[in-house]
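Risk register update: the risk of archive-format incompatibility is retired. Evidence:
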Amino acid sequence: MSPTRPRIPPVQPRGEMRRTRILHSASEAFLRHGYAGTSVDALVAEAGGSKASIYRYFGSKDGLFMAAVEYLCGRFLENLKAIDIAEGTLERRLDAILRELVAVVASPRHVAFYRMVVEGQAHVPGAGAAWFEHGPQVWYQLLRRVIEGAGGAPARRRRKVPAVVPELLFDALFARLTIQTVMLGQDASAADHEASIAALISMAKRYLDDPP
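Archived output:
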C-alpha cells in the first residue's frame, strides 16, 4: 500500500511555470544520478530557486521523485497519444502501437528511466505503482480500446476482451525489450522486433477469432 502523501497546498497559476521548471530539472537529475545519488541541495542547484520552493510545490524529496516519475511517463507517451486508432485494420493499428512501444522502451532515455524507477522504489514506496499507473496501464487501455473496436467500430461489432489479451501483448514485448536493453545492454529497433510484433498480433487475432 502506498504511503500517504503530505498535504500540499494547491499551486497558484503564477507558480506553475516555476513548478514545471523544478520538475523538469529534477527529472533530469534523477535520470542521471538516481534517487539516492541526488540530494535536495543538488536539485536546488540544478533548478535554481530554493529548498523552500521544492517543499512548497512537492512536499518533500520523495514527493518530487514521485512527480518526476509521473512527468517522465507522460513524456514517453506523447507520440503514442498521437497515433490514430480510429483508422485502418486491427493489424495495422496494433502494429503502430507495438512499434511505438519498441521506440520508447529501446531508447537510452527509457533505459535510464527504468533503472531510476527500480532504484527509487527501494527508497520511495509507491514509485513503482506510480510508474505502473501512468505507464503500462495507459498502454493496456489503448490496446484494449483498439481490440474491442472502440476506435471507430460500430457498437454492434465491439467485443468484450479478457484483460489478459491487451496486457499480454504489452507485457511480452516489454519484457523482451527490457531484457535486451536493460539487462544485456544491447541496442534494439523496430526492425529487430518485426518477427516478435507479427507473432504477437497473429496470436492475438487467433485468440479473438477462436477464444478458448
